[in-house]
Design a protein that fits this description.
The protein is of the alpha/beta class. Helix content is about 40%, strand content about 20%. The strands form 4 sheets. Strands 3, 4, 5, 6, 7 and 8 form a 6-stranded parallel sheet that branches. Strands 11-9-13-14 form a 4-stranded parallel sheet, sandwiched between helices. A two-stranded antiparallel ribbon has the order 1-2. Keywords: Signal.
Length: about 325
């Protein structure tokens, strides 16, 4: 007798093995898993963002440097930064991403954009006073990431990270969040190599005394020890004359600036006021008249996009180093 095997069970077994009627995506094509990282002292789990919003040039250019323009829902860029955007090497990326607002970052703008993730700094984007905080965004299902540099101002237990290490931390952690760790590693390693070159080539002797002028007449607005320009000046071979001020961007008294006798004044160029008008004010301001910087007409312009925490901080340091060398410093 010939034994007959039932066809249906065999076919069913084949379907179970081969997946009949279903398309199973290969593992590499599946959505990446969420990652958990520490940001400003808090452990946060981030699903992969697909509708990211970045605020101001610091956030936006960190994203662009990592090749993430196609993951962005849009940017919020204050109108004062518009001239600096036009000068940016990332201009093509800026033009490829929608500008959601030319005002400060707001909760309403982010929600209306259906964002799922926001990148900004504390008190330079996120703000209790303006009602847009990581906690409030989280309550409506929107994750956020704060610049590590700005953790100095956040919460009851501020986190102090030197500005360059803060930059590297952001780039590496953004690489983790968006699953582009190889890109982040290459970018950070390249920046570190350029920093090492600057450090090796710093001249000996006393560093040039440098004052960074952002704005202000009654009181100058400048960079203390906790913001990127302090690192830029140091890398270039100078010394920030307010490096002992334990702050990020802050106002100081003119008297302390005059007493420091800066040899160079670095002027930040962005759209609130033409940079030449700022320099004209500094030249005409009587208390500064006898300082070496004004007496010898030593002004160096720093683009806004290079002054805020971002990958172009190293460009700024290289340019300032070349300027100081041209002065014999």
């Amino acid at each position: 007798m010939t034994r007959r095997f039932p066809v249906i069970p065999v076919l069913l077994a084949g379907c179970l093995l081969a997946g009949c009627g279903a398309e199973v995506a290969p593992r590499s094509a599946r959505e990446p898993a969420p990652v958990t990282i520490e940001n400003c002292g808090e452990r946060i789990t981030y699903p992969p963002p697909t509708q990211a919003v970045a605020y101001d040039m610091s956030s936006t250019e960190k994203m662009f440097a990592l090749g993430l323009a196609d993951r962005m829902r849009g940017i919020v860029m204050p109108r004062t930064a518009a001239p600096a955007v036009e000068r940016s090497p990332y201009l093509a990326d800026y033009r490829s991403v929608e500008t959601l607002s030319t005002d400060v970052l707001s909760f309403e703008t982010v929600v209306a954009a259906k964002a799922d993730w926001v990148l900004a700094g504390w008190n330079s984007g996120f703000s209790e006073a303006r009602g847009i905080t990581p906690k409030k965004l989280d309550s409506v299902g929107i994750r956020s990431y704060q610049h590590t540099e700005s953790c100095f101002n956040y919460g009851d237990h501020p986190v102090r990270v030197p500005p360059l290490e803060a930059l590297y931390t952001d780039l590496r952690q953004l690489g983790e969040i968006f699953h582009v760790t190889d890109r982040a590693d290459r970018l950070v390693n390249g920046l570190r190599e350029r920093v090492s070159t600057l450090e090796r080539n710093r001249p000996g002797g006393q560093p040039a005394r440098v004052f960074l002028y952002d704005s202000g007449t009654d009181q100058p607005f400048t960079s203390g020890a906790q913001a990127a320009p302090n690192a830029i000046i140091s890398l270039a071979g100078g010394r920030n004359v307010v490096e002992n001020v334990d702050a990020r961007w802050t106002a100081v008294g003119w008297e302390s600036v005059v007493q420091a006798q800066p040899e160079v004044i670095v002027v930040v160029d962005y759209g609130d006021q033409p940079v030449q008008d700022k320099i004209a004010f500094l030249k005409s301001f009587p208390p500064l008249a006898a300082t070496p910087a004004v007496r010898d007409d030593r002004f160096h312009v720093l683009d806004y996009g290079e002054a805020v925490s971002g990958p172009r901080n190293i460009d700024a340091a290289e340019k300032l180093a070349a300027y100081l060398r041209s002065l014999g410093r």
